[in-house]
Amino acid sequence: MQRRNFLKGAAALLGTVPIQSALSAQPAPASQENATPDTSAHMLSSSRGLAPIIATPDRIIEMNVCTRPFRLQGPRIQDERIGRKNVVHNYGHGGSGWSLSWGTGRMAVQLAAAHGRRELAVIGCGAIGLTTALVAQEAGYRVTIYAKERPPYVSSHRATGSFTPDSRIVSAQHAPAFASQWEQMARYSFRRFQSYLGVDSHPIEWRDMYSLSDRPPGSPRTPEHHHRPPRTTTVPSAQ
């Protein structure tokens, strides 16, 4: 793959997709009428290269559950005076904390900059706390992080870490008012993540991801999908 050309294409794609559509719209349900024999044959031939999925309860190593604070109106990035301190709130990103961490961190630091102080305390060291601290350091702040736990014992460490900037980030009702702020966060975060491609420790990399579903993309979830009886499926083994 020509990485440079691919990155240019990805950046161009981010610039041309309507932000409002990414926030609130869903793809139209796929129709079987659109499938052709050639398309079906190609999909079947491609799937034969996938390794069989062996998913049984005895193969579960560990189960983790973490919270994803969600606010209908979107995350709270707001300056507030509490006692003798200026506090910048930066929370409530739903399922998009990792994805928007750089952009939301920059917004929080910009709010803090209005007070003219050069010392800044960050409470929490998950994805958003750490990126906020790094952005503040780059801006010349002396930063101290206060946290109950450190990685890998923070909730962010259990997240997938995929770039999903519109995952449970705002309700459809509040999406129009939040669109501009979301676009700024998403664009800046995307650029920062791109800058880590190719470094030795591979903190960021491109990965192929697949989703298996009995429903067409974008179709509503019905009660029978919640209580579907188990079934056995034969998957061709990889050659």
UniProtKB/TrEMBL annotation:
GO terms for biological process: D-amino acid catabolic process. Residues 24-43, 210-239 are annotated as: Disordered. Residues 32-111, 120-197 form the FAD dependent oxidoreductase domain. PROSITE patterns: TAT. Keywords: FAD, Flavoprotein, Oxidoreductase, Signal. Gene3D superfamilies: D-Amino Acid Oxidase, subunit A, domain 2, NAD(P)-binding Rossmann-like Domain. Residues 1-24 form the signal peptide. This is D-amino-acid oxidase.
